[in-house]
Amino acid sequence: MNAAVCSSVSSTTSIVVVAWFPWSPVVLSADAGHSSWEVIHKDMYLSNTLPFQGQLYGFLQTSRQIVQVYPPKLLGPGPVVAHVPIKFGNPFFCSYYLVESDGHMLLVVKSMNLVGRDVEEWRRYVIVIFKVDVSLGHWELIPVSSLGDRALFVSMDRCLSVKAKNLPSISSNSIYLTVPLPDPVVMHSLSSQSFEWPTTLCQVHDVKEKIHPSVRPFTIADHLLTYCNHREWATGLMFHEYYTIPKSYEELWKKIRAQDSEVRISRVQDSIRKGKRSVELKKE
């Protein structure tokens, strides 16, 4: 389950918790002090999301659409507020990240770069940044060529913007991101348009059972990127070491599954079928 805190539409001095689920189209909300949840969306599969200025925005899975999740748009053209340009190709082969940076909403697009086999696989990406501007009353994507002293850490779970001058070893005007490779951490410099590995491959295991010692001390980038990846952060693991976990780590998998199953909203489907707008949160 994922959740975010937003400003309540029912009270200017209250908050609301919005919850959604991986690979489920249901989105719930509950005002502070209320004992039940309200179903606000029944057909919204979300990927990356961003709480911004008291509201919640996100991407529909395998689409180019940015939607307003909360407050729900009951009138007008619907929840879609912006589209990623079609020139980046099929969204199935792209990754989109929303991140708040210096008071602005930024959109980071990562798409495949169809270059020759002589280019290493972890360098075969195109990274583009847009500022999402709503000042004119409509959404507009404005290209961003520089982040200045900022550095972005992006993942599907959480994105982060930091000032590089306050954090030794963090490169300014850069994006730290993940790629689906054995060494998953890559840094992209907007200044040079280059890709670098900010850390040496140091997973504490191979794909089977062989164990390697953890490489310490961890860098600031290691900690920040782990914070952006919820599974590793919630279980006390470093992302760059435990990006993949062998099946032989039975006790670790048991711990992860136990944490994932602590809270279940078991009555959501029944409530939707019956046309109800509220459900109870049941802990099992």
UniProtKB/TrEMBL annotation:
InterPro entries: KIB1-4_b-propeller
Record domain KIB1-4 beta-propeller: where: 5-183
Official protein name in the record: KIB1-4 beta-propeller domain-containing protein
Lineage of source species: Eukaryota, Viridiplantae, Streptophyta, Embryophyta, Tracheophyta
